[in-house]
Design goal:
single chain; 335 residues; mainly beta; five-stranded mixed sheet; 21 strands; 42% strand; globular
Length: 335
């Protein structure tokens, strides 16, 4: 019996941990939001609402470097925080050891979408064209200069936190193997403001800025300059050094150098009495100022004047409805 047991034990299989096979690795992604102009640094106007950047899920893609096709992918969402307070997202992925091109990006964006992701050379971030109703509001021209009626009017992208790595090596391993990465925003944020006289008569305002890139090639790390696009966003009522302004921080994949429109901003302002005021300005020179180059501040010197309402809000037509007092009524209900 002892001889038989020794023979069996000598030919037995090696015991290995199932949770750490050779073809499984972990990916730990640190989220770097420290240097996003007008959001986490160089904020010009702290009175307006700023976006919060806190991704909850990352998509991890590994591509074959020879033909660019997907070799493995996974979605990771295990959130933790480093000692310095920065967010970290971790998860596992099964992949054979080898050399790959890698792309990681946050998967929880609302406006920013991804297309052509089956190949490393074609994966692209973009946003949709606005509805016809919204786009038709911005068909005016400023001084006969080409404006948003000749380009696609698109929604502004929300923050795409990503990184890419070419020729990422995953070695053969018996113990746990972890890839550490850091994602940063590839979306640029600008602050835009213009002075308004009669701000109390403004109920809401929107704007588009033309001369912008419409998408971003993630594998190539470059913006797509053709076709030219115009970014649509909403404005906020605020103040700057005691002066009334409408202002906004807006996102873009980047400004196109030498765009035919030269960067036109079109404002669509709604008043409390139902009027719509439209104004257009060429802001290309602002992109060349020190404020813009260093801080992405587009500080317009012009003033928009909104005239007072000719009628009080809520008058001048429509139904004149009213509600009287409640009356007590007693009824019997057969069940």
């Amino acid at each position: 019996m002892l001889i038989l047991l020794s023979i069996i034990s000598g030919t037995a299989c090696e015991r290995r941990l199932l949770e750490e096979p050779d073809n499984q690795i972990s990916v730990k992604v640190d989220v770097n939001v420290e240097n996003i102009l007008n959001v986490t640094t160089d904020v010009y106007n702290s009175k307006i609402t700023l976006p919060e950047i806190k991704p909850e899920m990352m998509r991890v893609l590994f591509y074959n470097p020879e033909n660019g096709t997907i070799a493995a992918e996974s979605y990771i969402s295990d959130i933790s925080y480093n000692e310095d307070g920065t967010e970290s997202i971790k998860g596992d992925i099964k992949i054979i050891p080898g050399t790959y091109n890698m792309v990681i990006y946050n998967f929880d964006t609302e406006s920013t979408m991804i297309r052509n992701d089956s190949n490393f050379a074609t994966i692209e971030a973009y946003t949709d064209i606005v509805s016809t109703t919204v786009g038709d509001q911005f068909k005016s021209k400023a001084d006969n200069t080409s404006s948003s009626d000749s380009v696609n009017v698109i929604y502004e992208p929300d923050y795409l936190m990503m990184m890419k790595s070419e020729n990422e090596v995953i070695p053969y391993h018996e113990k746990a193997f972890v890839i550490k990465a850091e994602v940063e925003s590839v979306v640029q944020t600008y602050y835009l403001q213009i002075k308004v006289k009669g701000l109390e008569y403004v109920s809401s305002a929107q704007a588009v800025v033309s001369g912008m890139a419409g998408s971003y090639m993630m594998g190539k790390s470059e913006v797509v300059s053709s076709p030219e696009s115009a970014i649509y966003f909403t404005m906020q009522k605020s103040q700057d050094n005691g002066e009334d302004v409408i202002a906004a921080v807006f996102n873009t994949f980047g400004k196109i150098d030498g765009a035919s429109s030269k960067a036109i901003v079109n404002f669509d302002i709604n008043t409390v009495d139902g009027r719509t005021e439209q104004r257009s300005f060429d802001i290309a020179p602002l992109f060349e100022t020190e404020d813009c180059i260093k801080h992405h501040w587009l500080l317009m010197t012009e003033t928009i004047t909104i005239d007072p309402p000719t009628t009080k809000p809520g008058t001048g037509g429509g139904f004149n409805t009213s509600v009287g007092d409640w009356d007590d009524e007693d009824h019997s209900i057969n069940l």
